[in-house]
Amino acid sequence: MPEARAPLARNISIVGVGHIGGSLAYDLLATRACTTLTLHDSSRRARNNLAALFPGCCVAGSLEDAVRTADLLILATPLSAYPKLLAAIAPVLARRTVVSDVGSVKSIVCQQFSELLPPRAVCVPAHPVAGTEHSGAENARANLFRNRYTILTPSERSSSSGVRLVKALWRRVGARVMLLPAAQHDSILALTSHLPHAIAYALVLAALESPHRESDLAKLSAGGFRDFTRIAASSARMWHDVFFANPQELKRSLKHFRAALDKIERAVAKGRSEELIAFFERARASRRSILAEGQAGVFLPDEPAPSNSPEQG
Questions:
Q1: How far apart are CA 122 and CA 70, in angstroms?
Q2: Model pTM?
Q3: What's the rounded Cα separation, in Å, for the pair 207 and 264?
Q4: Which CATH number fits the domain 184-270, given the four candidates 1.10.220.30, 1.10.3660.10, 3.40.50.800, 3.40.720.10?
Q5: What confidence tens digit (pLDDT) does each residue in 292-312 have?
Q6: What is the maximum span of the chain, computed from C-alpha positions, in angstroms?
Q7: Which of 70, 68, 62, 76 is nearest to 34 (CA)?
Q8: Euclidean distance between CA atoms 1 and 113, whole angstroms
Q9: Helix and strand numbers, DSSP H then E, in the chain
């Protein structure tokens, strides 16, 4: 964890304290990124556990209380909650408050920020490209964002000071920061994040709908199938929201995948051995580039963790 420095802001509020929001809360507390960290969740049951899970934070009993005092407000709820949430925030949002988020789709978030928040609101959408298949504050963990990329997608509702603040926050918790247009973010993430989840869900569904018994599938699962089931164990609600928030780019990604799958099928059917090997070698090389960037998550024993590279943006 980076060495604690002067606070970035007096009051930071996180609304929606699940796996991502909770992991961010741990790191903000550890690095003393703010004088007061306020947490709020729409679930009363979740709120009752927050003080014990995150000692040193302030638990707001209402959304309004979390918003009024915030210098930086971070939304970490499911994407489908944004419209209702932003409508509730708008009347109590202070002029000084910078609004950001952690959503996995950015074009629709930029649009909703523009349409549902007052014109004076400063908004800096963000997406930390990190996480596991687990959900809920009880599965939050420190250092989740260390050496991982967080993407900021500033819009006409952003200010230079707001971008600096949000960038500094993510760098404080160890992330590497990039700035991208929202449309480019959504196009790339549809391939690198959304498509793998669609494939994982489809693969597991195909196995379950095969004539084989589920107990036999579990016993004879090879490592590759096991890894796909890990991805498919992700939050159904969250990925439902992501798919419906980025439908056109997901459709394009699925089209690319079908074309690649057809290429493999044709190579096998026509006995094109060298073509198949070349295809596999190209994929292996891609794996090495992912490792070099430090974006492969948990490293296997024979995979060296990367050294830090300069931050971008």
A1: 13
A2: 0.86
A3: 20
A4: 1.10.3660.10
A5: 776 655 433 343 444 444 344
A6: 66
A7: 70
A8: 32
A9: 13, 9
